[in-house]
From TrEMBL:
Localization: Cell membrane
Residue ranges that the Swiss-Prot or TrEMBL entry lists as coiled coil: none
Pfam families: Cyt_bd_oxida_I
Record InterPro entries: Cyt-d_ubiquinol_oxidase_su_1 (IPR002585)
GO biological process entries: aerobic electron transport chain
Record family assignment: Belongs to the cytochrome ubiquinol oxidase subunit 1 family.
This protein's name: Cytochrome ubiquinol oxidase subunit I
Keywords noted in UniProt: Cell membrane, Electron transport, Heme, Iron, Membrane, Metal-binding, Transmembrane, Transmembrane helix, Transport
Biased composition (Acidic residues): 83-94
Membrane topology summary: Multi-pass membrane protein
Ranges that cross the membrane: 56-74
Length: 105
């Protein structure tokens, strides 16, 4: 059961990315059905090489961010819930700065 909870940590990121892809790939806001065809919508200034380059850059950027996020989440999950309690026990309580005697007579 805990493995399921750990795996669901990535669900919002995956759902957000998939929803964005479906939305953007399923529509062409500059194209009007029956009036402005797909052939007319293509920009003459954009080459296939520039599209490929920008897609590769975005893929590498988001892939790198996903790897970093996965690493950080797995690192925290491996510590377990007891790690936080141990850290709290090891910390010394904060001392009152007024206990030094400066204001005591």
């Amino acid at each position: 059961m805990l493995w399921t909870v750990g795996a669901m940590t990535f669900a919002p990121f995956i759902a957000n990315t998939c929803g964005w892809l479906v939305t953007e790939l399923g529509r062409y806001p500059w194209t009007v059905y029956g009036m402005f065809k797909m052939e007319d919508s293509v920009s003459p200034n954009v080459t296939p090489a520039s599209l490929l380059f920008s897609n590769i850059v975005y893929f590498l950027l988001f892939g790198g961010l996903a790897v970093v996020m996965f690493y950080l989440v797995v690192r925290e999950l491996r510590k377990g819930p007891d790690q936080q309690e141990e850290q709290e026990k090891e910390e010394e309580p904060a001392t009152d700065p007024f206990d030094g005697g400066a204001f005591n007579e």
